[in-house]
Amino acid sequence: MLLKPDSCSGCAHATISRGYAPGIGPPSSPLSIFGEALGASEAGIGEPFVGQAGAALNRLLARAGVDRRTIRVDNCRRCQPPRNSFWGNPGSYEANEHCEVHRRESLTEATRAVLALGGNAIAVLTGIPKETIKVENFHGAPVWSQRYGCWVIGSFHPAFLGRGNWNLCDSCLRDVKEAVEATYPGYCREELTLVCDPGPVEWARLVTDAKQACVNEVDQPSWLAADIETVKKRTNSEFEDPYIGDEAERIVEGDERIVRISFCWDTGFGVSVPWTTAYIEGIRALLEDSQVTTVWWNERFDIPILARHGVKVLGTVLDAMWMFHVLQSDLPRGLGFVAPRYMRIGPWKHTAQADLPHYAATDALATLRLGYAIAQDLLTEGEARWQAFWRHVVDLDARVIHPMERIGLLVDKPAVEKLRSELDQKQKAVRERIQGMVAGKLKREKTWQREPKKLSADLLKEGLTLEDVRSEEREIPVSKRKKLTAIQQQQGEFKELTERRKVWFIQRPFNPGSRDQLLAYMADAGHQPGRNKDTGGPSVGKDALEKLARADPFYASVLYDRRVGKVKGTYCDGTLKRIDPQDRLHGETLHVPTTGRTSMRNPNLQNVDADKAGQAEEDNPAA
Q: Which residue of 186, 331, 424, 614 is most buried, as measured by CB atoms within 10 A?
């Protein structure tokens, strides 16, 4: 392990972080690669990227045709932070800033591009607030760093790939190649033309132009990309921040307000207008024309909300998100993730709160461009690929799924309530059996320093009452220790101070749904947990418990409890929570599986489980 140099003196983490690893490779290289901080292997050896993450990085560089010896490799932090937490320790911000002197050793005037691996590295090198960064929205997208005078290309950290995300290897390879291109003279990103909040005359002209392109163009009518932005209503009639979440999110019916809508019918520019009276007539003219083919990124979010605001989309509907899923079913479907494969425009999904109009207009422009590009990729792979999308997504949604969802499934509510009651009794019985199998020392306690007058809702839900509360005298830590900082504690500047005091406590039942409690039972019984295939960590999944159940009936009871809980939660609680006043259930059918079949949510009525006897536990709600 290398000793820290004199330049680390005065750093907030100089005495509590572990190891030191300087950058390696020629500082004169036009390309640098920066990770976040050292891991245990790097700290022990004194060299960046030498552990499993380093091996993964070497493979990526080799596939990209990059000789690691010819580039500069470093980390934003040249030590291993306490608890491996980049930002989460006292003094983290000061320590990260102190490492600026080291970063300047690697980021020289010769540096033209940096490949930033991981969200923390992206935040440090771009200066963009870490709270707004999702790596999937930054990977492969160029950001010009004024501070370092070079391009920063984000990507996923190789350690993240090793935690079961090898499907992103191809995306990371693209990011490496993009960073190499960014070192070439003349490299630049495309600056978009965006029209935000045009005046009434200009808006009328734009609507006319759109209709001309999407309807009257004889040879090849354009698609019309559209995208809405909403805010969620609060109970006090105030409004939350604009909707900026994952595209797959669904807002509950009646709990949204459209604030803006954006369009694109020409790949050269995007238009965004506020959802106000002055623009509604033009919005209707575009969306309520049955001759206009509209393209969306997750139309399941936008179109139902538009309908609840009195605007019906009447033309053919294409969802570019599912189009990409047909093309590449193992990758994330977010617009920000997919865009760098087809556009060099830089990241924008983090700007919603700072500049909503430009964010929204970019969404629409990106949707149209990606729609055309993905369609071309499908056609390049063969006409059958495009027909598969049209048949299994476009036609299926329009002719079967959406009408079915609007009508809803008629539910026999009394039968569901009866089934829930029966399952409640089954779960109560199996949980009582589980409690008898578990030693008292493995059950959690809730303690009070004063005698409780009532129990919290979660304790009452577990079947506990005030009669279950006991009291005794115990040695407990004094509160002074809590006021010491984490650094002081790690430096040994405190003693374990305790005092004898009366406490009140209640023993909570063993929770078979808790991973930690199941692992504690296994450790106490001397049983070996399973192994997670993706992360390598301990597993309490179905396969592991089925093996252990051969020797200990406790695990068979846990599996049965899971089955009953799953059926009750999905088919009873989930159904009764979502049926409308006419006892109809409006679930959602999606195209998530990579096999081409459909899936469901809210609730998932395709998720059927059977008990040991081979008979379905969930006498499905009659329709």
A: 331
- The token pair that represents 287 in the structure block: 């969306």
DSSP annotation string for 123-149: HHHH---GGG--HHHHBT-EEEETTTT
Neighbours of 83 (CB within 10 A): 10
The C-alpha atoms of residue 384 and residue 403 are separated, in whole angstroms, by: 26
Strand partners, 264: 225
d(CA 148, CA 30): 13
Q: Which residues pair with 446 in a beta bridge?
A: 506
Report residue 143 as tokens.
């950001």
Cα(573)–Cα(420) distance, rounded to whole angstroms?
8
Distances in whole angstroms, Cα of residue 578 to Cα of each of 300, 404, 413, 480 = 18, 16, 11, 49
pLDDT digit string (tens) for 121-155?
A: 999 999 999 999 999 999 999 999 999 999 999 99
Q: Report the C-alpha dihedral over residues 448, 451, 457, 461, rounded to 10 degrees.
A: 90
Ranges assigned E (strand) in 133-240: 142-145, 150-155, 193-196, 224-232
Q: Quote the tokens at residue 88.
A: 């989460």
Residue 272's SS3 state is: strand
> Other CB atoms closer than 10 Å to residue 67's CB: what's the count?
9
- Residues 504 and 451 sit within 8 Å (Cβ to Cβ): yes
Burial 49-59 (b: 16+ CB within 10 A, else e): bbbebbebbee
Q: CA-CA distance, 217 to 199, in Å (whole number)?
A: 26
| String of DSSP letters for 193-262 | EEEES--HHHHHHHHHHHHIIIII-SS-PPPEEEEEEEEEBPTTS-B-SPP-S-TT--PPTT-EEEEEEE
- For residue 305 the two structure tokens come to 């909300």
Chain centroid offset of residue 381 CA: 30
- Alpha carbon distance 167, 158 (integer Å): 12
Three-class SS state of 81: coil
| pLDDT > 50? residue 233 | no
What the block records as the tokens of 350 is: 């983090």
Q: Among the listed ranges 249-253, 336-340, 464-468, which one has the minimum average pLDDT value?
A: 249-253
Phi/psi of residue 208, nearest 5 degrees: -60, -45
Rg of the chain over all Cα atoms, to the nearest angstrom: 29
Token code pair at residue 421: 């009651």
Alpha-carbon span 363 to 134, nearest angstrom? 16
d(CA 291, CA 519): 60
7, two tokens: 């330049």
- Separation between Cα atoms, residue 449 and residue 619, nearest integer Å: 48
Q: What is the pLDDT of residues 568-598, one digit of tens each?
A: 988 899 899 999 999 999 999 999 998 888 9
